Amino acid sequence: MIVSKTNYKIANAHLTSRLKQTLVAILSVTFGISMYIFMNSFMTGVNDTQTGLAFSTLAHIRIYNDIPKDNTNLFKNKVDDETLVKVRNPKIIQYTEGIKNSEKILNMLDTIPEISGITPQLNINVFFRNGATKVNGMLSGIDVVHEDQLFGTAQYVIEGNWIDLDRRSDGILLGSGLAKKLSLRLNDNVIVTTEEGITKNYKVIGIVETTLASVDNTRAYIRIGFARQLISKNIGYVTDIQINVKDYNNTAALSEQIRQMTPYKVEPWQEANGQLEAANKLRNIIAIAVSLTILIVAGFGIYNIMNMTVNEKIREIAILKAMGFDGKDIIQIFLTQSIIIGILGGIAGIVFGYLVSVVVNHIPFKIASLETLPITYRSSDYVMAFVFGLITTFIAGYLPAKKASQVDPVEIIRG
Amino acid sequence: MEQLALSVKELNKYFHEPQTFHVLKDISFEIKKGEFLALTGKSGSGKSTLLYILSTMDTAYEGTLTINGSKLTGKAQNELAAFRNEHIGFVFQFHYLLPEFSALDNVMLPALKLGKKPVEEIREKALENLKLLGIENQAMKPANKLSGGQQQLVAIARALINEPTIIMGDEPTGNLDSKNTRIVFDIFRELAKERGQTIIAVTHDDDFASNCDRILELMDGKLIHQ
Ligand SMILES: Nc1ncnc2c1ncn2[C@@H]1O[C@H](COP(=O)(O)OP(=O)(O)OP(=O)(O)O)[C@@H](O)[C@H]1O
Ligand SMILES: [Mg+2]
Known about the structure:
The complex is a heterodimer of chains A (about 425) and B (about 230). With about 425 residues, chain A is α+β, with helices and mostly antiparallel strands. Chain A is built from 14 helices and 10 strands. Chain A folds into 2 domains: about 190 residues, no CATH class; about 180 residues, no CATH class. In chain A, α2 crosses α12 and α12 runs antiparallel to α13. The longest helix of chain A is centred in the last third of the chain and has 39 residues. Chain B has a single domain, classed as P-loop containing nucleotide triphosphate hydrolases (Rossmann fold). At the A-B interface, α1, α11, α12 and α14 of A face α2 and α3 of B.
């Protein structure tokens, strides 16, 4: 729509002659747009914190050796339908535990560009013992460099040094809860016993605290090579391969691609942690519902004010029409007003929304790993807020403008 | 044969509210180009109603209206608006200006809408018109700060800006003193004679009417003299 200069001039005169109402209309848009931005930034911040926390131990995709899912029909695809199979008292015997020859898979994964990080793990269920205290837990044999790359575990080490794992063959890092249960401190000794009854003595060279109780209370880390030694496995033996991808929302297609390459179970995080994804989605829905409601309310504000303007200016509309301005001109004149209101309110809303976000981002909130309330600044939120704001003002302005264009000049001028 | 500026055939108009009322009854007449014409009649005889139909603003009538050779009956609102803008100048019974704009802007507006001349030229022409009516010193005043008579003069200047074929005035001198009435009358006279513009002016002023080329008189919606 190209607004003629004359129509723009008239629109402008209407806006400036009723400055107070114009300001109120602009403020309602400002409020709507800034709340949209704030709500979405806040919810995204919460989501990012949640997933960030979850991804401190959880990889985007995990590959492991699973027992067959459907145990009730073990002969499916092995014999044809005509053959009658009768198995009594079936039991699953897992012949191959873990993943052997992990190098092959690791090399293959290295060629996929969407993958941002890979680390092998050897997770063993063990007992930790210190004197009479005995705690059940999980010993993770890890690749020191890659593990940190994926999970940033080094930043959660509160005592000792992550990198020391690479230096000492008898070094172990304990979760903070686990250490507490065992009354262990740095440089103390801890005895690890495997399910097979093998026992080894380790020296505590660090304490890890992720704030996730499930990890802190059960987990300990050693170097993957030493873990293999502990349970007498060959080089290349791992229980899990953990993979991070560039966009963690985009795991489904990639998982399918990897599934074609290996016989092992390939599990994207959404599958194992449905509640995480559900919570994220629910929060997004709340954010959108609330912010759209606010925008619609702002839209009603503009609608009201533009309607008042049209009623107030009805004589002038009649004069304009008498002078030869047609319906389209009148629509332009009034729509231009609401669009100007929308643009000014939109710009102010973006600035205000940013300020509110910054202020909220400084409100202290010391729970879990948080220091302040979380905010994620995404330019797409700002763009969307502006676009939605403009659409709202456009619709809210169009209806009164349409009404104005239908004014019958004779009726008004006759008096 | 002289060219026709306007012709009306068998025009009938009814109002339906509050009850059906036959305002204009079987009106037919023709006006030649360059004629200066007075439309008279008692209050309520239907002069304004007729003028609104002639101005193309009112389309709810029976009969046909032809201006400048083009039949306007039955045309779409937007077409009529464009036609009005170019060919008809209108002075209302009550002076109607846009209050936010200066006198000068008000005068310029129909020409800006027409968009056939550069703004500078329109401005000069508007100033010239205001000068013609003796109110060039009010050009920059907002319209709502002018006196009733001044507003009417601005409205007349505005009606002239596009040099329309027909200028219609509903008591265009109703708010003016005798001196200004004289000025306006002389301008109309001049425009009709020199430029061949057609003037139709509703008036209660017998003096004004008697000096026109011709008088149309309405009585109870009927044309009793033409
Ligand atoms: N909208 C309307 N609805 C019904 N009747 C109307 C309407 N407008 C005008 N009338 C009637 O039509 C008749 C003609 O009115 P009109 O305004 O044309 O008179 P007029 O000749 O211009 O009078 P005046 O000299 O007072 O201006 C009057 O009787 C009036 O009451
Ligand atoms: Mg009248």
